[in-house]
Structures are given as structure tokens and as C-alpha cells.
Amino acid sequence: MHKTRTFLASVVMAAVFALPATAQDETSFDTVVATVNGKNITVGHMIVARATLPEQYQQLPDEVLFSGILDQLIQQTALADTFSGELPARARLSLENETRSVTAAEVIESVMSQPITEEAIQAAYDEQYADADLGEEFNASHILVETQEEAKAIVEELSGGADFAELAKEKSTGPSGPSGGSLGWFGAGMMVPAFETAVAGMEAGSVSDPVKTQFGWHVIKLNEKRITEAPSLDSVREELDLQVRQTLVQAEIEKVTAAADVNKDAAATIDPAVTKNVEWLE
Questions:
Q1: Helix (DSSP H) and strand (DSSP E) numbers for the chain
Q2: 168, 181 in Cβ contact below 8 A?
Q3: How far lies 88's CA from each of 2, 15, 73, in Å?
Q4: What's 103-165 look like in SS3?
Q5: Residue 97: CB partners within 8 Å, gap ≥ 6?
Q6: How far is CA 76 from CA 39, 54, 62, 80, 173, in A?
Q7: E-strand spans in 20-111?
Q8: pTM score
């Protein structure tokens, strides 16, 4: 049965050994760190091994990781040298898939690293924000109470000239009560549906009838409303840059795949459930 490969416990348990203080300036990725049965383990091997570690291991001190990774690579090399015969199908196919994946990732990286023009960034911004309906934002206050009767009584007090903020401080059970019920500015999706629906139908300066939500009964005052403004280009530049690069990658994938000589007729004759038959590879 295939056993999950894990980062050896020696990383966690490794003694803390400082890196050599005499490390040479000419150290590079192909600098040999150790040899096992004549096979080289290089700085590059260690860099790749560290880069693939889970995040919790990445937080360990460099000297702990150096020692642990080197031990792991030495152990793996020594173990690999004891293998004889032909690799089982599981291992051989895993290597083929890994080679395919890593090589394809290099192509994607080359596309992602292409310089992006300001014109492309501007075009992406215009497409996303120029004609978009960004909706409205609301500035509202509310008084939250437990019963409809309490809410109706508050509406009557407000109709009689009571100050909304003072009533909120006195009677609201919500966390905004001490600040006069103020909720500040919010847009679509930021409030529960019943509350948002009530606010959307109000005029600035008006007070709602009691509104029920899962939190209780609300009396809402709409202070202001405005059309949501599009963010500045600079504030979303990084996001747009990534979007443009991802679009380039997708276009490259589609172009290369369309140009490839692909024949998948045989796939139509195969039961999709066969991909679960891991035991075939043992």
C-alpha cells in the first residue's frame, strides 16, 4: 500500500547546530554539502526541500532546518541506494506526473513573469470599474430591542420629537447603543437581508417602522446614502496586475492546448470509476 511521504521527525528533533561561520561567499546552488555513496547533495537540493515544507516547519530556526533537511536528504539517498529492481508502477507514474507538473509550471512562470504594460492595467481597470453598477452605500443608525411592542413605542417617541441618538444610548441592546446607534457606512451584503431591504427602501433622514431580524427588533434611521465610488487605480493596481497575468496564462494554456495534437477518443470507452483503483498500481 502506498504510504504518505512525510517530512522526517528528525527535523523537529534535530539538535541545534549553527551553520559554519566560515561559509564562503562563492557558495551557490550547486555547492556540494555532503556526499552519500558518491552521490552529491547540494545547496540547491536543500533549497528545494525547504521550499516544499509545510508552513509550520518554515518557522523553525535556519540552523534546525539546515540540520534536519540535510539528515533527511542523506537518509533518502542512502535508502534509495538500497533499492534494486524496477520501480513499481505507482512510483514510476508519480515521477512522470511530477515531471509533467513541474515542467508545465515553469512555462506558466515564464508567462507570469512577462512585463505588464500600463495600458493593460488601465484596460483591466476600465473593464472592471468604468461601467460597473457599484450600487449604493448607506449610513444608518438603529435601536435594537427584544420585542415589537418596545420597537413601536420607540417609533412613537421619535414621532413625538425624541432624539434618536439619546434613545439609542438609553434603550438599545445592540453594541452600537453607547455610540447613539451609529452603524457607519455599509454596502450591499454587509447587513442581514431584512435590515438591508428596509434601509434600501428608505429616504435619507427617515425612520423605519419596526424591522425584525434574528437579532431582535430594529428601529432604523437612514442618515445618508451615496453611490459607491470605484476605487482608485493605484489602490487596486496589484490586484489588476495579477488578473492580467492570470488572463495571459489562461490564454497561453488555451493556445498551446489547441495547437497540440490531442486525441482522447479512447477516454470515451473507459469507466471514470477506474481512477479509484489504486490497488492496480501495487
A1: 10, 6
A2: yes
A3: 11, 36, 22
A4: HHHHHHHHHHCCCCCHHHHHHHHHHHHHCCCCCEEEEEEEEEECCHHHHHHHHHHHHCCCCHH
A5: none
A6: 12, 19, 21, 6, 63
A7: 32-36, 39-42
A8: 0.58
What does the block give as the cell for 8? 522526517
pLDDT for 134: 78
3-state SS class at 226 = strand
Residue 194: CA count within 13 A, CB half-sphere: 12
Q: What are phi and psi of 96, to 5 degrees?
A: -65, -45
What are 37-86's pLDDT values in tens digits? Answer: 999 999 999 999 999 999 999 889 999 999 999 999 999 999 999 999 99
d(CA 170, CA 158): 13
Map grid coordinates 492580467 to a residue: 244
Measured over all CA atoms, what is the biggest interatomic distance in the chain, rounded to whole angstroms?
93
